[in-house]
Amino acid sequence: MAAAGARFAAARDLLAEGDPAAAASAGYHLCMSSLRAGELASGVACVEESIAGFRAGGALDDLAAALATAGRAYDVLAEPDRAFAAYEEALALARRVGSADLEAKGLNNLAALHSGLGEVERALALYEEALAIFRRSGNRLWEVRVLHNLGTNYLMLGDLHRARLLLEEALAGRIETGNRDGEAITRNVLGRVIQLAGDRATALLRQREALAIWLQEGSVPGQVRALLAIARTERESGDAAAALSTLAEVERVLDPAEHPREATLLRAERGQARLATGDLPGALADLAAAVERRAAERDPWGEAEALAALAAALRRDGRLAEAEKRLAASVERIEAARLRVPGSELRATFLGRWREVYEEWIDVLMALHAGDPAAGFDRRAFAVAERARARSLAALLAEAEAPLEEAVDPELRERRLALRRRVAAKAERLAGLVDGGDEAAMADAERELYETVAALEILDAEVRGMEPRLAELEAPPTADAADLAGRLAADELLV
Q1: Which whole number is the average pLDDT over 399-424?
Q2: Any idea what the Cα angle at residue 35 is, between residues 40 and 85, rounded to 5°?
Q3: Residue 339: helix, strand or coil by DSSP?
Q4: pTM for the complete prediction?
Q5: In 277-404, which residue ranges form alpha helices assigned H by DSSP?
């Protein structure tokens, strides 16, 4: 690779004076060699040099591709602002030159970045837009890539059924197109879905299949992702010792400077495994570092999870007041993310995924109350319970009282009505196939139904943003113990 790099560098220097775009193209090969070798920091610096050359030479197609490459590198390096800037310029250029393929790739890249920042509503809309373009153009390779990304988003939301449908369709497409790296990626994530559904053996099988592919391909980042997934499955299945052994293998191959996000995942996962094995000092150190890194990476869901895990370690250490503060911060991140989830059904599913954090917060408050009954911790616990209930129930009731059909934009009303009709038609078709025994037709019908429901949920989120009365749904009012007690008669008791 060193000899090839020297040749590319020489070609770039020879061309630099007369043709900046050609020089940039020659240098770009050198950049890609560095990136493929995992040298992200030096690789993206090299790409920036090529971007300057493409810009000077007016090579817009090449410029758009190089900006997309830079965006991906900045994303992996946990620099979201620079990633956004690169991706947005790449998308604008793709539209300017009229390249539907580059436009759809740009939409997919931006969606992935929004998803990583917890902005699910925007991510889903961008993914659906990209998917439609790839299907129209017949780009099967990228179509299945977007299907995988959609499945991953529904996994994050806690909708395991929809996630599994999309990921299994993506896996079939990865195998069909011979995309071995993509196949491993989808097998790995599918393992997580299966683990959450309660089938540990099959989950580990899928994740080890992914690891085997990445070992064969020599992909160190892939090996790290698979080993981290395997360790999590082992820990959540009650085998924390096995998880720590797997994580030791991750430490052996991982370069934290080149892959900071994976390094954060390692700290978070190792902290929870250490907690499970009784290594409290090690757990506290790892989990505190993970919280700090998640915040720096602007990953609200990861930060919420790390905060809850740190709270569990602090509680084990007898530091209840500190644990309570971490749980309050975790719920704050969860509720901020909830506001970006489209559709009442998905919001309810999302909150269900995080219910244990609310329950742990209530438990810690009641433990604090036991130590200091006069401090009002029991009332705070009641308020937390009411808050969790109100976030789902009150939102649904309020939405029923302020129908989305009354949105001010007639065009949106018509689009929503058409989508609701399509949902009804797709559901009727699926129901008609149930007794026929044609599993392939049923799978297609179920996929079409869920795609249409997803489009409706995204549109509903857009309508809610335009309807002022629905803004109250973002933070429905809750009642505290004092408020409810004031409504009781003298001989009534609040329990």
Answers
A1: 61
A2: 65
A3: coil
A4: 0.69
A5: 280-296, 300-316, 320-338, 344-353, 355-371, 377-401
